[in-house]
Amino acid sequence: MQVNRYIDHTILKPTTTRDEIVKLCGDAAAYNFAAVCVPPPFVRLSKQLLEQTRVKTATVLGFPFGYSAIEAKVAEAVLAIVDGADELDMVANLIAIRNADWAYLEKEIQALTALIHAKQKVIKVIIESGILSDEEIIKCCEICARYQVDFVKTSTGYAEKGASVEAVQLMRAHLPANIQIKASGGIRTYEFVQQLIAAGATRIGASSSVAIVEQQPAGNNSSY
């Protein structure tokens, strides 16, 4: 398994420095990761640093709590796309989810998906599965399927519980085959990555990406 091509090499802390982004992108290029995921102010720099590589540039919208207005997320998306983002990871409105305001969630996902797809970019909807009930996860999957998002993503990494095999399995069971799953939050080992991929994840968000790849058995890392 060429695990490097599953990974979004990630740094999203609010104190991120330019030097950290330079190192992140250097590592991403060296290990041929799928993407880097960076704070919005660093999209333009990341895009420039990765210009001669296959590595995509991803950023976040409504991060990490998801309760900013739809209009604010739309503005964030527009700016990120102008700066060169290839993929946009949007935190769904968790207040809407926990209050079963499914009409609001539909409106949000519809608006952001239409905008991002019109620009031929990728949208990943983060639902924070670790703090949701199975019923809430299933309902989110149904709405995401209705508007044909590209990925449903387990977690921001900021909640008390991140990715789990069980959540990925539940999501896979309630999403059409064309919608992918990104597992993120607390992923630090190659073994855990293997379990998540076996459960149905096709993308992994991690800050421990280099360590994960280095844990691969010899002979499995020839694709760098």
From TrEMBL:
GO biological process, one term: carbohydrate catabolic process
Reaction(s) this enzyme catalyzes, per UniProt: 2-deoxy-D-ribose 5-phosphate = D-glyceraldehyde 3-phosphate + acetaldehyde
Alphabetized InterPro entries for the sequence: Aldolase_TIM, DeoC, DeoC/FbaB/LacD_aldolase, DeoC_typeI
Enzyme Commission number(s) from the entry: 4.1.2.4
Main localisation: cytoplasm
Active site feature: 89 (proton donor/acceptor), 153 (schiff-base intermediate with acetaldehyde), 182 (proton donor/acceptor)
UniProtKB keywords: Cytoplasm, Lyase, Schiff base
SMART domains for this protein: DeoC
Protein name: Deoxyribose-phosphate aldolase
Originating species: Chitinophaga parva
Source organism phylogeny: Bacteria, Pseudomonadati, Bacteroidota, Chitinophagia, Chitinophagales
